[in-house]
Here is the input.
Amino acid sequence: MPYEGEFASYRSVRRIVEAERVQKLLNRARVFRGASRQTPLAPKQDLDVVADLPVFVLAIDGSYAEVDVRIGYPGAKVGYVTVASVLLDLDRVSRLDESRPIDPREFRKTEQAETIDSALPGSNVVTINQKSACSSFRQEVYEIFHDIILDDVDRVRLLTTYEELLQRKPASRGQECPYRESHGCTAEIVVPRGVSDCPQCKRPVFSTDALRIHERFRDLGTNGEAFGLVMQVWERILLIHFLRCFERQNLLGRMGRLAFFVDGPLGVFGPPAWLSAAISAELKRLNAIVRAETGNDLVIVGVEKSGNFVTHFEEIDRTENPGEQRFCPRSYMLLTDQYIKERITCSDSDKRYGQDTYFGRKFFYKTSGGAQIVGTIPFLTDEQDTLRHDDISIYPRFGTLCSLLDKLASSRYVNSVTPLIAAHAHAAIPLHLGTKVLQRLATALMGDR
Ligand SMILES: [Zn+2]
Here is the structure.
């Protein structure tokens, strides 16, 4: 998440750009030279409107903040990480829609929210049985995973879902013992489930140490990066957690009635990036069951509000005539590897874009109301796991997704979708509403249409 208001002032930016060394570097830098050699920009408009849409949307969105705390040690900080999952009943939203403008109080009644919120040690905060801020942080991350139970009936811990994904981590390469920095332990370890001991230094190792978020933890200063990584991992594991929960309750056959919205791209970045391949494999396994039972795929989308892809979409949508745009309503582009490398990230790598980090692929969509949506659709089969061509026929839910986005694109916020705004509202204001989203959803899904 960007640090708003931390942009350098215009004057200092200009001073830097004008500096001789910077000029020399820019002269050597590759500049985008128009579309002549590049993959043509080709928004498509062949989507049919899908009428039979899911009736529920489960949206997942997190936020984090770092706050100073007064505990007698200077510079002590605590990270506050929240992840909200909000369930929206689209039938009720539609009924409200007929009487626009929507009364926000009425709108709230269409959503049910569940928030995970947690406080994590930051710099200079050492918990009672630990010796450093970093080991306190590691232990708290583990315990929060252990303590989170989202469903009173199911009673499965978030840790269990995480450890299932951990089993999919390739064991060929070990990782550094988490005590390498602090105690000089040189062991290369493969982190198992639960709490174990490092074979060399005999200190405790938590299964969540495999996320390696602690490698970005700093004993002094700010830990926005580490807290951001915890949030990112929670958001994505939660998606799998819900799906596995539905699997145990034999609800995967009802997934045609539910769509999942995740804030941000469908990928895992930084030290926990290995999770991406594990999540992808698990999504494919779950989707195979959904396909067998319903004849169709899961409906899942990640929506990003900022970053290079969002900027690029804005740029290519502009034309020389003010007010005229290149993408007409309901047009889309499924981005290929070649397009991304030539136009967005500038790379000549043979490795597929996002190979190690993404479990889905990017698309641009202009909704019927004109909102620009930058989304990711997951790879739910091996056939879908490609960036080579832009044939949407291998993603049978793409049309459903776009029709849903038409319906949910917010009229109040630019290029954003209502369920994620609702989830964000809950994530941003940490409060535990006590309603058990999963239980209510299970009941609703079992009900007849
Ligand atoms: Zn060790």
About this structure: The two ends are 40 Å apart (CA to CA). Residues 56-446 form one domain.
